[in-house]
Structures are given as C-alpha cells and as structure tokens.
Write a structure and sequence with these properties.
The protein is an alpha+beta fold. It folds into two domains: 37 residues, no CATH class; 114 residues, no CATH class. 18% of the residues lie in helices and 33% in strands. It is built from one helix and eleven strands, in the order αβββββββββββ. It has a five-stranded mixed β-sheet, with no helix packed on it. It has a three-stranded antiparallel β-sheet with strand order 1-7-4, with no helix packed on it.
C-alpha cells in the first residue's frame, strides 16, 4: 500500500513537472516568460554621421548604419563613442534585429539604412569622426538644399 502511494505520488510529481515545462516552452515561443526566445542581436558598422542642423542640439548627431528592414523601434538599437579634442570614435551600433517583446510603428528607415541618436559630451564642431572597429573615416553630412530640394550635404567647415 505504501509502495503504491509512493509510486502514485512520484507519477503525479513527474506529470506536474512535465506539464510545467511544456507550458513554459509554449509561453516562451509566444514571447512571454523566462523561456521566451531571445531576439537576434545585431552589431553594425556606422556608415555616416548626420548633424541635426539649424535649431537642433549641437551636441547630438545621428549615426547612420545599414538597415535593410522596413522600420526600427525607439530603443531597438544604441551607439556609444569616445571623444578627444580632435576626434570622435564611434562604436558599433548594437541592439536587436527585431523589437524585443513588443510591436512598434517601425519608422526612420529607407529600407537600406537607419539612424540612431548619439549625444556627445560637446558639439562635434570640426572634429574628425572614425569607426572604432577599424579606424575608417566616417563621413559627416548636414541638412542642405539642392535645387530647392532638401538633401544631405558634406559638412561645411
């Protein structure tokens, strides 16, 4: 009798543990709970820096990176940099390929690139911008007009 009771209790425990695991996996695939699938991380090389132009904060620039998706969410990617008196060295843009755990109105892309805000300790001014990963120069552009059409032009000195 006692042996049968132990067997029944063991079977119930195994069943509960198995069911709990199954529920955890199913919720994880649905993007809920500690077993949810982690979105793929990205690390992308900066390809340009855009000044905000007249009326914009001079200590803020937009770092442009390759992005072949339709949109991007606020907080989906980030970038940092180190600064000296003559150079700003921009790190890789890092984040998630897909927005982590939420939907958003994907904005700010043209299907080829996107940009993320970078706040500098002081305005960029005439400092050179390089990629930290390989030391390559990163082109700096600013808003301008060409034949009456808004465009991005090389930074003027």
């Amino acid at each position: 009798m006692r042996r049968r009771l132990v067997t029944v209790v063991a079977a119930v425990v195994v069943g509960v543990v198995g069911l709990t695991g199954l529920v955890g996996v199913l919720l994880g695939r649905a993007g809920v709970g500690p077993l949810r699938d982690e979105p793929a991380r990205v690390s992308l090389a900066p390809v340009g820096v855009q000044l905000l132009g007249e009326g914009g904060d001079p200590a803020v620039v937009m770092v442009v990176f390759p992005w072949g998706r339709d949109g991007i969410c606020v907080g989906q990617v980030a970038v940092t940099a180190s600064e000296t008196a003559s150079t700003v060295s921009v790190d890789q843009v890092t984040g998630f390929a897909e927005p982590p755990g939420r939907d958003c109105a994907g904005v700010g892309t043209d299907g080829r690139s996107a940009a993320v805000e970078l706040r500098l300790a002081s305005p960029l001014g005439d400092r050179a911008v390089t990629r930290r990963v390989d030391g390559a120069a990163v082109p700096v552009t600013q808003p301008c007009e060409r034949d009456g059409v808004a465009a991005w032009c090389p930074r003027s000195s």
